[in-house]
Amino acid sequence: xxxxxxxxxxxxxxxxxxxxxxxxxxxxxxxxxxxxxxxxxxxxxxxxxxxxxxxxxxxxxxxxxxxxxxxxxxxxxxxxxxxxxxxxxxxxxxxxxxxxxxxxxxxxxxxxxxxxxxxxxxxxxxxxxxxxxxxxxxxxxxxxxxxxxxxxxxxxxxxxxxxxxxxxxxxxxxxxxxxxxxxxxxxxxxxxxxxxxxxxxxxxxxxxxxxxxxxxxxxxxxxxxxxxxxxxxxxxxxxxxxxxxxxxxxxxxxxxxxxxxxxxxxxxxxxxxxxxxxxxxxxxxxxxxxxxxxxxxxxxxxxxxxxxxxxxxxxxxxxxxxxxxxxxxxxxxxxxxxxxxxxxxxxxxxxxxxxxxxxxxxxxxxxxxxxxxxxxxxxxxxxxxxxxxxxxxxxxxxxxxxxxxxxxxxxxxxxxxxxxxxxxxxxxxxxxxxxxxxxxxxxxxxxxxxxxxxxxxxxxxxxxxxxxxxxxxxxxxxxxxxxxxx
Length: 486
Ligand SMILES: Nc1ncnc2c1ncn2[C@@H]1O[C@H](COP(=O)(O)OP(=O)(O)OP(=O)(O)O)[C@@H](O)[C@H]1O
Ligand SMILES: O=P(O)(O)OC[C@H]1O[C@H](OP(=O)(O)OP(=O)(O)O)[C@H](O)[C@@H]1O
Ligand SMILES: O=C(O)c1cccnc1
Description:
Domain Nicotinate phosphoribosyltransferase C-terminal: 368-476
Distance between the termini: 49 Å
Family: Belongs to the NAPRTase family.
GO biological process, one term: NAD+ biosynthetic process via the salvage pathway
Bound molecules: adenosine-5'-triphosphate, 1-O-pyrophosphono-5-O-phosphono-alpha-D-ribofuranose, nicotinic acid
Number of helices: 16
Radius of gyration: 26 Å
CATH class of the largest domain: Alpha Beta
Helix content: 25-40%
Largest sheet: 7 strands, antiparallel
CATH architecture of the largest domain: Alpha-Beta Barrel
Structural class: alpha/beta
Protein name: Nicotinate phosphoribosyltransferase
Function: Catalyzes the first step in the biosynthesis of NAD from nicotinic acid, the ATP-dependent synthesis of beta-nicotinate D-ribonucleotide from nicotinate and 5-phospho-D-ribose 1-phosphate.
Strand order of the largest sheet: 13-12-1-5-3-19-20
């Protein structure tokens, strides 16, 4: 059981119609025992980063465990086409019976390396493509975007405020989960908080202030309700003319009442020049003796604005980030793909390739593993090597080369190596112990610490090398040549 069954739905029909069509044709050809291998990977990091942060595996596991065609599902499918009865009977007993390997959530991943591998019969392999891509593309995208925002905040807490502008409920809930994995400290999304044990946090809206006859009255009432968690929104009427002075009056009253027990308080700025307003507000708060009052800022923030505001010396302690994070507004999709790379003939997997005019779109054939090499002294990641499953992992210095520009070479030495794909399902059984969200978040933090800041900078990041082993490279180019001849 995954921890959040309460939000788990049967998503069996969450697939593209052509997957069912292919399943049907294979079924009629009696190919249900034909075993194949699919790789999930993406070709380009989102949002201009030098890495991506993998998320969504827990939802993939839930999806796989709940794969069942209900009677209503089958009735619906029967209306879409005249399938043979045998096929519909097959669907009614359908279960996922294959093997899945994946990188763990919170792992830093790079273009052109398998991040999930599915080995199963061809019918099952087709069915699960769409949902797996949907779940992983979305959460990996948002986790990556959120990690950029957290990086720009440079240690300041970031709150995720995006639910109201997310593209629907799932994007809000799963997006909040991905953002927490990436390092935000809390979410305004109460459902995500409940489902995934994410700290829920928040202030109040302008409507709350408007609903009282004066701003001060609104502040005092809010203070009565939340004496120890009091962030007052100061920009409803006039930030420096009334908002900050009324917040200070409220703090003075609370301080008189509660003495040292009055803590965790501050203001939120939500419009205007956030650099200027935060500097002046800081001064006003300090002069009134409220040096520990926090300044929260929100209003269309993203990683670039946060970086810019920091450069301007803004006195902002906490960053509330909504729309631009939850929708990954500058980069609305991650292009993860699912490609057939091998099929079993007799007892052997035969590598398969898909050729394209565009060299970047030619698939890398075969059953593969991904090995990450770390500098054994600094523990920083050096390079990833995609290898054939049966190959031995190097134990001594070796020369890696760029798979496209093969004259670009690098000696890899003084390393420790780690395989990053781990077994998740074996013969349809979950064999992986799901980590808690806190463990995933801690893993993401430690993973991000293994890549250089040059890869995390917001623009023109350093490109990390993902190379192919010599054997795999030879296999790929042999297959390309064979296909060309054909
Ligand atoms: N010092 C600053 N430097 C760069 N951008 C800033 C600075 N201060 C605020 N911003 C950003 O500029 C944009 C200003 O938003 P906008 O023009 O909508 O005005 P506003 O202050 O939000 O007004 P209102 O909410 O009252 O309509 C926001 O994205 C905000 O985060
Ligand atoms: O700007 P974002 O990064 O998306 O952050 C979320 C925004 O949502 C709220 O505004 P909204 O106008 O919806 O409500 P309000 O009346 O409480 O300000 C909040 O005040 C933020 O400005
Ligand atoms: O709690 C907040 O301040 C909040 C929540 C949602 C959106 N914007 C702000």
